[in-house]
């Protein structure tokens, strides 16, 4: 669940000392990345799968092992531990998600009848009517988690990371052990079922009761060489790959329900691959009915690839791999390309891998992708000589995502800081010293084009739709030289494609917002046109605005750390570090609290 983090903002909010662009990693020497379209190929047998996995992994090995590789002896630790849907009594807000009908995991959920939070391995249930905590459950996982909610069940998603040793200890693993926990909320919360499997949780999407969970795993291979010369290390590592069994690549799992324990391993027949691949990782997509009486093996489907960004609609799931593993390899990387895999979703069946493709450059986050009218739009930045960005339109044809149109040359010398696609329109913010907000017409998939541009100082890190022709931008104000100065909230009028304009602006010096990095932290409540923006730095709390075409009207200030905000009936709930506070939705006056 990758989030973009501005390191300089975290360090004591020394905004004036931040660099003019996001930090980039130093590359040692170029590696050519193929930009050819990717087609899906099936493996003829397990023997063929193993041969190709070994060969591809040897090509990506370095003297220091595989970035993100996990020791072969790291294992899954065992753990032991009836849904209904009642209509909510009041209106309530959901998680601020990318697409309607495709819910996203978060640290807090509500169905109007209850609030469920998960933090540091503890799940809590709060009754909004009585404003009391009615349940608490130790989940037995050391990692932070997120959750999905359906009926009287919650599905908690987390990943633990095995301890690395020797020369691999300096690498942060991209693999790990997924820990998925199904919790019954009909009474005191209790664990019904637990899925533990190899692979970190990348992200998940839920439509109705059905959740699709994306895992990413890396080969679990020991590299025991004691050599000190890099040539000898590389030789020994390649030999270790050649000797590794197929199980080193194929993820396994264990499901515990009560005293019943079952286990399994990914079948070769469930694995697909693009025509060319790194061999360094495997993506697995699991399917669960959150309202079911127990978890299953998830009916897994897999593709040989890494992956770090998930975008979903009710009918499609996309996983993107921008090949950032090349940045961690000792050989470095030249300009990168991004692999994209498309899965078709049925109402409850397992996803079907239908197409794959490759686009130049890297994606910012899931908002860089959008499906509309049966096609995928993708916004990327390339950095081969001088940064520039583009939006491409892709169509699924014969198992390939084929480019049908492109508009490029956006923000030359700059990088993308935010993207929002709205139907046939698109909006892209790039930044180095100033902030061009580009307005795009994407109605013709063969000829997307820029229709307008607005240059202002600073940038928007997230664009939130607050009306048919209104966007709110949450980001940073900056000097004309690009030095960040503080939190900026902007209101844009995009009714005229040729002349986007800024209607209003609010700046809070020496401050940042979690919403810059995680849109789940932002609350937009259309019923009362309320926007709640969490703030950290100048003060800890949140700023609230009433938003319409007339501007950003200050609605109040909420004091105390605010991580999330949600609406239930006439109450505004805010989640802090040690509990939740309640305010009147109309006045924002405090009316209660629940301590954890």
For this entry, give a set of tags.
596 residues; mainly beta; 6-stranded antiparallel β-sheet; 4 helices; 40 strands; 6% helix; Beta propeller domain-containing protein; Beta_propeller_containing
Reconstruct the topology from this structure.
Layout (H helix, E strand, L loop, with lengths): L6 H4 L29 E3 L3 H15 L47 E3 L4 E5 L2 E6 L4 E7 L6 E6 L2 E8 L16 E8 L5 E9 L1 E8 L2 E8 L12 H14 L8 E6 L2 E6 L5 E4 L7 E8 L11 E3 L5 E4 L3 E6 L3 H4 L8 E8 L7 E9 L8 E4 L2 E8 L5 E10 L2 E11 L4 E8 L2 E7 L2 E8 L7 E9 L1 E9 L2 E9 L5 E10 L7 E9 L13 E3 L4 E6 L5 E8 L2 E9 L4 E5 L2 E5 L3 E6 L5 E6 L1
Parallel strand pairs: 14-16
Antiparallel strand pairs: 1-14, 2-3, 3-4, 4-5, 6-7, 7-8, 8-9, 9-12, 10-11, 11-15, 12-13, 15-16, 17-18, 18-19, 19-20, 21-22, 22-23, 23-24, 25-26, 26-27, 27-28, 29-30, 30-31, 31-32, 33-34, 34-35, 35-36, 37-38, 38-39, 39-40
Protein name: Beta propeller domain-containing protein
Organism: Paractinoplanes durhamensis
Rg (CA only): 24 Å
Mean pLDDT: 85
Largest sheet: 6 strands, mixed
- By DSSP (H or I, 4+ residues per run), the number of helices equals 4
